[in-house]
Design a protein that fits this description.
The complex is a heterodimer. Chain A is an all-beta fold. Chain A contains no helices and eleven strands. In chain A, strands 2, 4, 5, 6, 9, 10 and 11 form a seven-stranded mixed β-sheet that branches. By secondary structure, chain B is mostly beta strands. In chain B, the strands form three sheets. In chain B, strands 2, 5, 6, 10, 11 and 12 form a six-stranded mixed β-sheet that branches. A four-stranded antiparallel β-sheet of chain B has the order 3-9-8-7, with no helix packed on it. The chains are: A mainly beta, B mainly beta.
Chain lengths: 122, 116
């Protein structure tokens, strides 16, 4: 399958600082990337959809000014947690949509995931 | 809006045995995709298997197979010859074809433990 790299894997920061998380599709171009948040032993909660060259689409209840998303190229999306607070501590996961066709069949539309970033805000 | 329900929060199976994880979904769409992802303790989400709704044939990937019942809106995952490495959280997911950016809707997950 395709590879998505997410960096850093873990970050610890002080309250009030900003943290940037990168998500890269390594062997395919991703016009669409997704950012999720996952609480312990819970499912993934979609935060926003990142489209290359346009503004991100945020899910209801997600503060767009706190979670800044930039999708500047077909292989890179970044999530910046601004003025982080302890309640922002969580596991953040990105995914990239692979829309290539294979063997002439229908568009795959598979999302491949990064390894996640554990954010701890002190 | 679509919903995905996984009614088994936890399951366990003995190594080498077979286990089936349940998933039901609710949608008014006719053209969509269904997925099973696994999340081992490393927390890396890994695609296990994928099914297009327009295909009647059940998808298979080595030891993993699905039972897709479109009319019943059921999409169960069967793991044969379970291995210790299959221990993970398993998420069932729905994607509407042509929907806004092809978002995934996840179930709450089933924690599968394979015992030696």
């Amino acid at each position: 399958g395709a590879v998505v790299s997410q960096h850093p894997s873990r970050v610890i920061c002080k309250s009030g600082t900003s943290v940037k998380i990168e998500c890269r599709s390594l062997d395919f171009q991703a016009t669409t990337m997704f950012w999720y948040r996952q609480f312990p032993k819970k499912s993934l909660m979609l935060m926003a959809t990142s489209n290359e060259g346009s503004k991100a689409t945020y899910e209801q209840g997600v503060e767009k000014d706190k979670f800044l998303i930039n999708h500047a190229s077909l292989t890179l999306s970044t999530l910046t947690v601004t003025s982080a607070h302890p309640e922002d501590s969580s596991f953040y996961i990105c995914s990239a949509r692979d829309r290539r066709t294979r063997s002439g069949s229908w568009i795959e539309n598979i999302q491949y995931f990064g390894a996640g970033t554990r954010l701890s805000v002190l | 809006a679509q919903t995905v329900t996984q009614s088994q929060p936890e399951m366990s199976v003995q190594e080498a045995e077979t286990v089936t994880l349940s998933c039901t979904y609710d949608t008014s769409e006719n053209n969509y995709y269904l997925f099973w992802y696994k999340q081992p303790p490393s927390r890396q989400m890994i695609l296990v298997i994928r099914q297009e709704a327009y295909k009647q044939q059940n998808a298979t990937e080595n030891r993993f197979s699905v039972n897709f019942q479109k009319a019943a809106k059921s999409f169960s995952l069967k793991i044969s010859d379970s291995q210790l490495g299959d221990t993970a959280m398993y998420f069932c997911a729905f994607m509407k074809h042509g929907g806004s950016n092809y978002k995934l809707t996840f179930g709450k997950g089933t924690l599968l433990t394979v015992n030696p």
